[in-house]
Amino acid sequence: MLSHQIHCQYFSQEDLLASGCLDVRMAMQAAEDALKSFSQGEVIFPDKIVQIFDDDTQERINCLPATFKNHKICGVKWVSVFPPNPLKHGIQNLSAVIILSEIEHGFPIAFMEGTLCSNLRVGAMGAIAAKYLARTDSKTIGLIGAGEQAKMHLTAMKTAVPSLRDCRVAAKTEAEEEQFIREMSLILQDVKIVGARTNLQEAVDGADVIVTATSAQEPLLKAAWVKLGAFYSHVGGWEDEYRVAKICDKIVCDDWETVKHRTQTLSRMYKDGELKDEDIYANLVEIVTGDKLGRESPDERIYFNAVGLAYTDIAIAYAMFQRASQAGFGQDLRIQKEMIFEHAHLRNWVRL
């Protein structure tokens, strides 16, 4: 008699961390491979489903699916973004879970904590862009924002640009900067990290690499602070004045068609008639595949904007699943023992 049991593996954040999944190089490789697979038509990438509960605060839950036909893996990220959480409740603003399924039978193979993967993906995409677009002799990175995304970006940028030696960070409060310095100094011991005492200009003025990682909906970064040769990674929503994009020699997106319909600075510029399709130099995949050149001059200012491509999340999650499984982490979850009407005690359970 055929077994009708269905099992999958559950991985907590701690399982993933203990098995070495906080690995920027692994994430970068998975994401670059995913970009190439997408360009080759191997990825099914439906539109994401967005449920916004408050237009003012942008509190929302998103459902983002993707399938890799070449790996026979389908996945979905269920992610909540609640920007007021840190100030209002003292808790994180983002949480996620990921489900992976094989597509031979359609059964789930993994249920995973997804916040680590989601944050790592954002950092990895910025790092891939920096790999091709930042100066290889960059020494200084300036950060506006000191939360989880800023921490992940510093880790990722140091991986992509090993020459980075100095970091300046500005946050809403000096206490946040001090926490950032305390936590990140333990991880990146060869990087000198200093707080800017909430002074945004002091953090980024003259930096070789600039990252804005906030939930702000106002132009924090000024064009006057962006020096020749700087690489700017825009993470959040409306974080920089329009002139920042206007002075840049190249604007690169993870996917311009996706970006233009969102609420980032570039999206606002497009809707206001301040930016045209032809002003976008490339999508990141074109640079990864070599169809377009990355940095061509040490003096180029380059702007990178990513809004997130769910298939890169799924690719990284699949790499995490493989690593954690091989390391022996995770717990078995039995989804079902038998089909519904095979259960011997069903008549005791059914309600008519």
Q: What is this entry, summarized?
A:
With 352 residues, the chain is an alpha/beta fold.
Number of domains: 2
The main sheet comes to: 8 strands, mixed
Can you tell me the overall shape? Answer: globular
Number of strands: 18
Rg, rounded, reads 22 Å
CA(first)-CA(last) distance: 30 Å
CATH superfamily of the largest domain: NAD(P)-binding Rossmann-like Domain
Helices and strands in order:
Layout: E1 6-11, H1 13-18, H2 24-39, E2 43-44, E3 49-54, E4 59-68, E5 73-81, H3 85-89, E6 94-102, E7 108-113, H4 115-133, E8 140-144, H5 148-160, E9 166-170, H6 174-187, E10 192-195, H7 200-204, E11 209-212, E12 217-221, E13 231-234, E14 238-240, H8 242-247, E15 250-253, H9 256-259, H10 265-271, E16 282-283, H11 284-288, E17 302-305, H12 310-326, E18 331-336, H13 346-349
Parallel strand pairs: 1-7, 8-9, 8-11, 9-10, 11-13, 12-14, 13-17, 15-16, 15-17
Antiparallel strand pairs: 1-18, 2-4, 3-4, 4-5, 5-6, 6-7
Helix pairs in contact: 2-4, 2-12, 4-5, 4-12
Please name the defining characteristics of this protein.
18 strands, alpha/beta, 8-stranded mixed β-sheet, ornithine cyclodeaminase, domain 1, 2 domains, Rossmann fold
What does this entry look like structurally?
By secondary structure, the protein is α/β, with parallel strands linked by helices. It has two domains: 6-117 and 310-349, ornithine cyclodeaminase, domain 1 (2-Layer Sandwich); 134-305, NAD(P)-binding Rossmann-like Domain (Rossmann fold). The chain has helices at 13-18, 24-39, 85-89, 115-133, 148-160, 174-187, 200-204, 242-247, 256-259, 265-271, 284-288, 310-326, 346-349; strands spanning 6-11, 43-44, 49-54, 59-68, 73-81, 94-102, 108-113, 140-144, 166-170, 192-195, 209-212, 217-221, 231-234, 238-240, 250-253, 282-283, 302-305, 331-336. Strands 1, 2, 3, 4, 5, 6, 7 and 18 form an eight-stranded mixed sheet that branches. Helix 5 (148-160) links the parallel strand 8 and strand 9. Helix 2 packs across helix 12. The longest helix has 19 residues, at 115-133. The mean pLDDT is 95.
